[in-house]
Amino acid sequence: MKHNPWALLAAMTLLAIPLAAHHSFGLEYDSNKPITLTGVVTKIEWTNPHSYVQIDVKDDKGNVSSWRFEGYGPGVLYRTGWKRDVSMKPGDTVTVKGWRARDGTNWGHSREITLASGQKLFFGPPAGTGDGGSAPAVEAK
Amino acid sequence: MRRFVAPLIVAALIAAAFPSASLVAQTAAPGAAQASAKSSVPRASDGKPDLTGVWQAGSTARGSWEEANSGTGLGGTGKNPSAPAVLSASDRPATAEKAPYQPWAAQRVLESYKNRGVDDPAVNCLPPGVPRTSILGLYPTQIVQTPQQIVILYEQMHEHRIIPLNAKHPDDLVPAYMGDSVGHWEGDTLVVDVTGFNDRTWLVGTGTFHSDALHVTERYTRVDKDQINYDITMEDPNVLTKPWIMHTNLMLREGTRLQEYVCAENNLAPAFYERIEKNGVNFRRP
């Protein structure tokens, strides 16, 4: 059997490396507080460093509250299959999955949105992104 | 025979630079496969490997951006929402060595970690520096190569680096977020020397600060059409006890275009941070 030095080199250099959100998830959002809400889109901000979608959510008694969810910027969303002003528009009924903000306000971070068409698309990174992961870069003492 | 030499030279260079890789040099033997790998490396008019293209860092998957980031997902950019949580630029790669900080400096890094990166300089849309910018996988990187200089464009933060070849760093460097880069070819490997940094960026992972004595050496080796091996050595005698070494790669993403990224457009994070600190919301790790 012949060895392939390129393959060996590649294997030696394999490393799971970083992807990033612009800022810390864990500082703003609580991964222990997942939330799923269905509502009507009232506003979409296709902006950097993060996009935002606002939805009106009606409770059992008919009271409406407005929620704002954060996600990736438009460049990342474009590469994950979003079509601006086509995939989601004000007036659409959508279901947003994510996690609540630590301050208890009607604010959250969204991982996935189920669109009016039934299609599901990522809107933001997984919980825990950007605040150092499960271990610090140094030996903890 | 000549065509078999380059892989061995690269192996020897890597083995010399990184002792842990010496096994590669001992076990590598020439064969037909590496000849085809070498022949699949696009060449520039001057005969050097051509690094020109749009690349994704931190991936090992071949194919277009869509193909490589679908399925179980990569960095949360995939199509499967149940994909496991992955590392971010503020996370230390699980398989990487711990950062060799001096004890006092390690305490400062740990404090940032416990505070979930509340002191992250990038949250204010400041340039993330090197290599924090160059290892990001969520955003594409474009390399433009000429015989005289190499330009690297990063979508995130609209950062760019102009790397003159066979040049010296200027004598009158002003400390900079992205440092000052000069490059040269060692065989088929582009070696980039980066110095002239300020002390306002993180290296890799939450809290990984450095001083203005930071010196980064990058090695870019295009090993086939799809892959550049990207090896990084970080030296900073003011905060580290020894060089901090990382290996990753860049994967070709044909068809991907860099998008606009105006970080100041709608940056709500700093105000959010201020609000939760002012309201006494506990975000510190237990």
Question: How do the helices and strands line up, and which of them pair or pack?
Answer:
The complex is a heterodimer of chains A (141) and B (286).
Chain A: H1 5-13, H2 25-28, E1 29-45, E2 50-58, E3 64-72, H3 74-79, E4 93-101, E5 107-114, E6 120-122
Parallel strand pairs in A: 3-5
Antiparallel strand pairs in A: 1-2, 1-4, 2-3, 4-5, 5-6
Chain B: H1 5-17, H2 22-27, H3 32-39, E1 53-57, H4 65-68, H5 103-114, E2 141-145, E3 149-154, E4 160-164, E5 180-186, E6 189-195, E7 215-222, E8 227-235, E9 244-252, H6 269-278
Antiparallel strand pairs in B: 1-2, 1-9, 2-3, 3-4, 5-6, 6-7, 7-8, 8-9
Rg of chain B from C-alpha positions? 20 Å
Q: Indicate the multimeric state.
A: heterodimer
What percent of residues of chain B adopt helix (DSSP H or I)? 10-25%
Number of helices of chain B: 6
Percent in strands of chain A: 35-45%
Whole-number radius of gyration of chain A?
19 Å
Uncertain runs of chain B with pLDDT below 50, 5 residues or more? 1-30, 71-89
What fold name stands as the CATH topology of the domain at 30-122 in chain A? OB fold (Dihydrolipoamide Acetyltransferase, E2P)
Instruction: Please give the count of helices of chain A.
Output: 3
Shape of chain B: globular
Widest β-sheet, arrangement of strands of chain A = 1-2-3-5-4
